[in-house]
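Pasting as-is:
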Amino acid sequence: MKYFTQEMWWGLDPRKPAQFKKVAKKWDCNQAAYLKQLAVVAKALSKRNALFFTRQFTRMTLHDADFENICIKEIRPSKSSSSTIRSVELTVTSEGHRYRLRYADVSNIAIKTANPPCYPSGIPMDVYFGDWGYDELTVHRNGTFQHSILFSCFTELSISFRKFSYSKEKESNKRLQSTSH
């Protein structure tokens, strides 16, 4: 995460007013810089997908969504081919809906976590991901996108990809919307 870091999140501790004020000012500055670069990045996406990635600053948000699972697929087009097409699907639930985020033409997946994950106080956590905290969409190397997600257990998941789609379903699995681009 470049704009919304684990250290900044830890620093937003209202029990430490001076630190909170300093970090909140930095957070606001980083948010402005992030929104500026996101406006450029979003132009390369379909209108619906651009709205998805700008949602945390509007009414639709995945902040505090429950992380359900991640599915990573490696498919070789043929036995003679050395190239691998990778896809990743994340499933999260929020406010009675299940979101399936699909990333295709994935060039890199990175998961960073403390082992074991701990609260800033050093008390161990019993999960490795937890709830969705904050996320960023940036342009990565060679024109690919990078979606980075910081979870409540301070695990960071980053996916570099070329294609993205998502679906939104009621938790009863009745499909409401789906898109791809």
